[in-house]
Amino acid sequence: MSLWKLFGIESQDAVSPVSSSQSETVTKITEALDELSVEQARFLACYAYILSRVAHADQYVSEEETQVMESLIVSEGQLPKKMAVIVVQMARTQNVLFGGIENYVVTREFNKIANRKQKMSLLHCLYAVSAANQSISNIEDSEIRQVTRELKLRHQDFISARLHFKKYLDILKSHPSPEN
């Protein structure tokens, strides 16, 4: 048996490029959501992945962040908790494995399928996930800024969402001032 078959690929020619219209990450999560319409499953797959992308920006996803992501998938997707847990776990795993490659591809796909209201909702949810542990690191904040750009939202949108969570921003937290 060849290595390609071992990994479920018939031949090297069957490997789809990362630049395909639908990323492999979104496809895998969508298949897990086969009870939903294809459009709704794609939306949730992208949504969960982007949440995971920001949660993992600092190379660690806390239990609190995971719980917030699951809660958001339950409310946004109107899914049972059990299914939301699976979606979030798959998104987290895909992000850890393919984050550097898939981040832009998945966010670009979400940009195509989401309207402005949905993008703004996601932006606020990204901050909610990051603030789950009472602290938004500079790395997480930068990742949210990058997602904002990829979603073609305005800088003003970013600032507006950020202001709702300013008390959690590490950069704004009071630090002891040096004595003169």
What would your notes on this structure say?
With 180 residues, the protein is an all-alpha fold. The protein has helices spanning 3-6, 24-32, 38-55, 63-77, 81-113, 116-130, 138-150, 155-163. It has one domain: TerB-like (Orthogonal Bundle), CATH 1.10.3680.10. Mean pLDDT is 82; it is low at 1-19. The longest helix is centred in the middle third of the chain and has 33 residues, at 81-113. It has eight helices and no strands.
Based on the model shown, name its key terms.
180 residues, mainly alpha, TerB-like, 8 helices, 64% helix, globular, disordered N terminus
Average pLDDT? 82
Q: Main beta sheet: strand number and arrangement?
A: none
Q: What value does the Rg take, in angstroms?
A: 18 Å
Give the CATH superfamily.
TerB-like
Shape: globular
End-to-end distance: 72 Å
**How many domains would you count in the coordinates?**
1
The residue ranges in which pLDDT falls below 50 over 5 or more consecutive positions are 1-19
CATH class: Mainly Alpha
Q: What's the CATH topology name?
A: TerB-like
Total number of helical segments?
8
The total of beta strands comes to: 0
Q: How do the helices and strands follow one another from N- to C-terminus? A: HHHHHHHH
In percent terms, what proportion of residues is strand?
under 5%
Please identify, by name, the CATH architecture: Orthogonal Bundle
Class derived from helix and strand content: mainly alpha
- The helix content, as a percent range, equals 55-70%
